[in-house]
Amino acid sequence: MAKSTRGRRAVAQQLGLIDQPTPTATSGKRGARPTRQKLPTDRAIFWTMIKRIFKWVFRLVAAFFIVSILLVVIYRFIDPPITPLMLIRPLEGATSGNVVGVTKAWVSIDDVSPALLRSLIAAEDGKFFTHGGVDMKALERAKAYNERMKGKKLRGASTITMQCARNVFLWQGRNYIRKGLEIYFTYLMEFVWGKKRILEVYINVIEWGDGVYGVEAASQKYFGISARDLNARQAALLASVLPNPRRWSPAAPTGYINKRASAIQGRARGVSLAPITTTNKTTPAEPKRKKK
User: Fold this and answer.
1) Which end of the chain is less crowded, N or C, counting CB atoms within 10 A of the terminal residue's CB?
2) Residue numbers of the domain that contains 131
3) Which of 278, 38, 69 minimizes the C-alpha distance to 193?
4) Angle subtended at Cα 129 by Cα 148 and Cα 166, rounded to the nearest 5 degrees
5) How many domains does the chain have?
6) Burial classification of residue 35, based on how many CB atoms lie within 10 Å of its CB (0-12 exposed, 13-18 middle, 19 or more buried)
């Protein structure tokens, strides 16, 4: 009982419910005993602890919102220097014995072949310009499909904005916490960045092979040309490997990738870039015809 009381008193002192004991200033007496305050009840101690916990949780949540909003605003004007995946892949390589570096070169969206932009939209997010960041109908279809397959073969419904949010701010993997954060950043990016900035950041941060990030680095690696010089077929091949860029190569496409690229190339012809177009550009695969 004495130990229990001492423990409660120590906890109460840590919580600030009672003061630390001080000796009584009694003159002329030796060995004066310290004054003792009334010990709070277990209920009072419990609720004080709960209030302290909620106070710290509130502070952490508030700090997260402030930092996340500031980052999104900063990245509206400043290009992200590095992403979580660029840090994770070298660590994974070090543990597996496969040394992986980081090859990237930022390029303005206005200096990228329109064929590449069309191919990415056709392959990854056909409704990119019309949804608000999350394609709810696609999510519902993916959920129904996954329930039918019972986890044997999962289908995602991530939009380009959601993929961009995951690559810039979060980590890879499947769990409800990450998905919730992904949707939060998605709506925040749609509100602050707009479609053109989202697409520009996306094409510069996505993984296109071991240690290869962004369209300029990928174009140089696989085709030996700049991203502005990609033709329609090369653009479709780059877009066709994105489901698993570490497994497939645009420069050495399998039969499946060639077939997928052809389908993407066909759909890309119907993609309009009017919502983000600022200049009239043509691609090597689509030259302007001279009037006779």
Assistant:
1) C
2) 79-268
3) 69
4) 60
5) 2
6) exposed
